[in-house]
Amino acid sequence: MAKFDEDRAKIAALRVRLLEWYAQHQRSLPWRQSSNSYAIWVSEIMLQQTRVAVVAVRYQEFMERFPTLISLALAPEQDVLALWSGLGYYRRARMLHKAAQFVASHLGGNLPARAEELRALPGIGAYTAAAVASIAHGEPVAVVDGNVERVLCRLAGWEAGSRKGGGATLRRKIEDLAGRLLDRARPGDFNQAIMELGATVCTPRNPQCAVCPLLADCKTRGEHKTPRRAPMISRAVGYALSVRTESEAGKRDGPGGREVLLEQRPAQQTVMPGMWELPTLVRSDVPEKDLRMTVRHAIMHVNYYVRVRTVFEDDIEGMTVEGGERRWVPLREAAGMALTGLARKVLTRAHLLPARADG
Ligand code: SF4
């Protein structure tokens, strides 16, 4: 078995094979057309915890609305959250916005070039800093995300560490190996190549070892041992869907239509503060005769089974739990608001909002 991590020539050959593979097989993704650090930063933040196919669509919408760091910094937070709606993990959007404002007001609008300086900004961790600095500015710093971690563990024949013990030691070993393998002449391409390999070939299940450019050096050649995942928990929630004909006041701003009752999550909430959702029912066990739909929505390790029923305007007070400020919102406005992903899902399934291109 090749000792790739001890042999310079083997490492050099591995880099060449990986970069050649990347040149031939990389997916065409919108952010890869740009070497602008702001554009790369936005894409990297969106890609954390969200599928590439979804990001590909939403990234373009975001960049059309906020083409520059300054345009993002000047936007109200609600506009930023509205464009983030459905991508989940809204803290990422708030931090991105905060960091843009900091760069605009303290750094003359220039995003720092070096990874170390980038890390000082809100919401930019080691991974994002390394990705932006290497891809946009060619700084030789290795990225280690979940994909890279998996590729390197398999390559070196390591088991993934459990969260309880040994995780920090393994993490250091992985970072060290990533740093030694990095092609210092082409760090941006190399980092993207190894992430792409993890995303498309060395996948968590059924890795495609037969077509892998690293097969000759790999000590695992298949799935490696990983700790057991925490089981999913199921939770029942009830939502009220209240729609009425638009009020006279609403009609003054446009053609008359329908409006839906939405509730804003209070600012002090730790999860999704300021986002708009449907009012919560006092009773989640909606009887079958009143059931409009059931929606499954996963957040972290919880599967929410949301039962939705129609509630008439006069019954709202008695049937729902008062959680935050409520507003009757014309449907033509609702689509552009900072809706939670779940609220958007329910309204789309009820055909009250148009379906988005990313589904
Ligand atoms: S040979 Fe298989 S396990 Fe090893 S890096 Fe390639 S795809 Fe992953």
What does this structure look like?
The protein is an alpha+beta fold. The chain has 2 domains: 8-217, Hypothetical protein, domain 2 (Endonuclease III, domain 1); 233-349, Nucleoside Triphosphate Pyrophosphohydrolase (Alpha-Beta Complex), CATH 3.90.79. 42% of the residues lie in helices and 13% in strands. The protein has helices at 8-25, 37-47, 52-65, 69-74, 77-84, 91-106, 115-118, 126-137, 146-156, 167-181, 187-200, 248-251, 316-319, 331-334, 341-349, and strands at 233-241, 243-245, 258-264, 276-277, 280-281, 291-299, 302-310, 320-321, 326-330. The strands form 3 sheets. Strands 2, 3, 4 and 9 form a 4-stranded antiparallel beta sheet that branches. Helix 2 packs antiparallel against helix 8 and helix 8 packs across helix 11. The mean pLDDT is 90. Iron/sulfur cluster binds next to helix 9.
Salient structural properties:
359 residues; alpha+beta; Endonuclease III, domain 1; Nucleoside Triphosphate Pyrophosphohydrolase; 2 domains; 4-stranded antiparallel beta sheet; 3-stranded mixed beta sheet; 13% strand
Question: What is the secondary structure topology, with strand pairs?
Answer:
Elements: H1 8-25, H2 37-47, H3 52-65, H4 69-74, H5 77-84, H6 91-106, H7 115-118, H8 126-137, H9 146-156, H10 167-181, H11 187-200, E1 233-241, E2 243-245, H12 248-251, E3 258-264, E4 276-277, E5 280-281, E6 291-299, E7 302-310, H13 316-319, E8 320-321, E9 326-330, H14 331-334, H15 341-349
Parallel strand pairs: 1-7
Antiparallel strand pairs: 2-3, 3-4, 3-9, 5-8, 6-7
Helix pairs in contact: 1-11, 2-3, 2-8, 8-11, 9-10, 9-11
The structure holds iron/sulfur cluster.
Iron/sulfur cluster is lined by residues 151, 154-155, 201-202, 207, 209, 212, 214-215, 218, 220-222.
